[in-house]
Amino acid sequence: MISVSERDYITKGVDRSVRADGRARLDFRDLNLETGMITQASGSCRVTLEGGTDVLVGVKVEVGSIEPDAEAAADADDIDDDGGARTAGGGGPGTDDTTGSSGGGTHARNRGRISCTVACSPSATRVFDPRDVESMCNEYSQLLNRVLNSAHGGVDLAALCIVPGSTCWVLNVDALVLDYGGGLLDAIFAATRGALHNTRIPRATVEQTDGRVEFEIEDEETEIVAGWEDVPLTVSMSKIGYRHIVDPTPLEELCSSARLTVAVNRRGNLCALQKGGEGGIEPSLLAEMVQTAKQLGQTLLSRHDTLLAAEARRIAKGVDPTGFR
Amino acid sequence: MSDRKRVTGPEKSVAPLLETGSVPAFIFNPDRRHDGRDVNHLRPVFMKSGVVRQANGSAYLEAGKLKVACAVYGPRQNQRTKISATKGSLGCDFKFSPFSGGRRRSYMKDEQEREYSLVLEQALSPAVRLDLIPKSTVDIFVQVLESDGSAACLAAAITCASLALADAGIEMLDAVAACSAGYFESTVCLDPTGEEEAHEGGSLVLSYMPSLNEVTHVIQSGETSTATTVKALELCVDACSQIHAVMQQSLIANV
C-alpha cells in the first residue's frame, strides 16, 4: 500500500533522476556477497543489499538418472552406441533418485541438469499476500530454470554427465529469500552465480568392464562447475512514470507499473528477457531498455567477478566466513 | 502422482522413443519452411468468438495444428479478501489438455502451466479497465486442445483470451494480440511450429496493443545479441498488428 502523495513524490523524483536514497536512475545499491558459509552444501552464497534484501542460495549436488524421454531426436547423431549396457552400479549414493518432475524441460541424453527453486522464508513474507508470494516464487524459479538449463545458460551441462544415457549430476539450486528490500530477482541471480562459483562437485571415475559401466565417486577430489563464469546476471528495470530505474526499493516497486528483466552474460549477449508487472511498455522504450540493460549488465558482471575473486582469495587463505554473525 | 482416483496407470510413464534414423533429419530453410511459409509469415489463423454458451464470453483459435479455447466468467465478486479494493483483478487459468502434446500431461497443473497463467494475467492486465470493476474479479480459463510449440501456445492463449474478454463485453483499452518468434542463429523466424521449436536456439513471445502502441508482455529465452532481439521485437510488433486485424474481423462477424 502506498499513498497517492508518496507515489507522486517518488514519480516526480524519478523524472528528475533523484531518488530518496540519493541515487540516480541507473545507480545500483552496494552489493555484499559471501560464499561458502553453509558447509553442508556443495556450494553456497549469500547476497545482501543495503536496503535489506537478503538472499541465500545453496547448491546441493546429487547423482541422478538421465530421464529416458529426454529429447533423443534433438541430438540423435552425437550419441554413440553404448552397447546396450545401461547398468550403472558402483558407489553412487541414490542412483535412481530423481525428484525431478521438471515441468516441461527437455534434457538431452548426455547432459546433466540443474533444478532450481526459489522460496520465500516466512520471516520475509509478512508484508506479502501468501498467494502472491507463491506465484512470484514460481515465476522466479521458472526463469532461473529456463536460463540455467538452456544451451547458453553458462554451466557446461555436458560436463555434468557421468554415464551417457543413464547417469548424470543434478545441481539442485535452492534460493531462499531471507529478507525483502526490493531488487529481489537481481539479488537471486547474483547469489546463484556466486554459489555456482563456490560449488565443488566430487570427481566421478567411470570404468567399463565387459559391457558393464560402473562409476565411482571420490569425495576427496573435487572439481569446479565448468562454465560458471558464463552464467548470466540479470538487470531488472522498473518503469516509473515515463522513465525507468534499476534496483528499486520496496516503495519504488509499489510505484512502478512494469518491470523488465534482462539476463546478460559475459559475451554481452542477452540470455533472457521477461516482463513483469501489470503495465505496458512502448516498443521504442523497450528497445532502449534492452540496450541500457546490456551495458549495465557488463559493469555488474565485472563488479561481481571482483567480489568473487576476493572471496576465492579469502577461502585460499583459510579465513572463516563471517556468516550470519 | 497425487491424483489416484482418475488415473490408474503407472506413476511414471514415458513417450515411446523413436528409433534413430526413422525420423527424417530436421533442416531449417529460412525461405521455405516445412509448411511452405517463409520466416516472415504466420500460420493462417482462424478465430471465432462465442463458442461456450454458459460463459459470459468465449473464443476459439486455430492456427495450423494449434487449437486453443477460452472462456471468460465475470465480472463477479472477488473471492479473495484483498486490502486494496480500488481495482478489480484477473484470475487466469491456463491448462494443457492431457493429450495435447507428445508427452501426456497430468491433470494437475504443473509449473509451466502455473507460469503461463501468470504470464497471461500480466499480458492482459494492462488492457482491461480494472479500475471500473473494483472488488470484483474476471476469471479467464484457457484450455489448449492441441499444442504445437509451447511459445506459440502461449501467444495463441493471450490472443484468444483477449478475444473472449471482448466477447464478454468487458471494457478494454485495446485488444491484445500476441505472437511468437524463434531464433535460428541470427535468423528470426515468426510463429515456429513444435518441430521448429525443438531445434531453435531461443524463442520470444510478445503481446502488444496495436491501437495504443504498447507492449503488454515480453518473454524471451536463449542467447541472442541485442540487435537480433530488437529485430525480433519489430517483426513481432508487425505480426501482432496482422493478428489484431483478424481479431477485429471475427468480432464484427459475431455481432
TrEMBL record, chain A:
Example of a GO MF term: mRNA 3'-UTR AU-rich region binding
Localization: Cytoplasm; Nucleus, Nucleolus
Acidic residues bias (residue ranges): 69-82
Keyword annotations: Cytoplasm, Exosome
Matches recorded under Pfam families: RNase_PH, RNase_PH_C
Cell membrane found in the keyword field: no
GO biological process: exonucleolytic trimming to generate mature 3'-end of 5.8S rRNA from tricistronic rRNA transcript (SSU-rRNA, 5.8S rRNA, LSU-rRNA); nuclear mRNA surveillance; nuclear polyadenylation-dependent rRNA catabolic process; rRNA catabolic process; TRAMP-dependent tRNA surveillance pathway; U1 snRNA 3'-end processing; U4 snRNA 3'-end processing; U5 snRNA 3'-end processing
Domain of life: Eukaryota
Annotated stretches, region: Disordered: 69-110
Domain Exoribonuclease phosphorolytic: 27-68, 109-202, 230-295
Cellular component annotations (GO), alphabetically ordered: cytoplasmic exosome (RNase complex); nuclear exosome (RNase complex); nucleolus
Chief place of localization: cytoplasm
Family, similarity comment: Belongs to the RNase PH family.
Annotated protein name in UniProt: Ribosomal RNA-processing protein 42
Organism per entry: Geranomyces variabilis
From TrEMBL, chain B:
GO molecular function terms noted in the UniProt entry: RNA binding
Xref: CDD domains: RNase_PH_MTR3
Gene3D superfamilies documented for this protein: GHMP Kinase, N-terminal domain
Exoribonuclease phosphorolytic domain ranges (all copies): 42-171, 174-235
Domain of life: Eukaryota
Presence of the UniProt keyword Lyase in the record: no
Example of a GO cellular component annotation carried by this entry: nucleolus
Keyword rRNA-binding: no
Pfam families named among the record's database cross-references: RNase_PH, RNase_PH_C
A GO biological process held by the record: poly(A)-dependent snoRNA 3'-end processing
Protein family: Belongs to the RNase PH family.
PANTHER family hit by this protein: EXOSOME COMPLEX COMPONENT, EXOSOME COMPLEX COMPONENT MTR3
Subunit structure as annotated in this protein's UniProt entry: Component of the RNA exosome complex.
Protein name: Uncharacterized protein
Organism this protein belongs to: Geranomyces variabilis
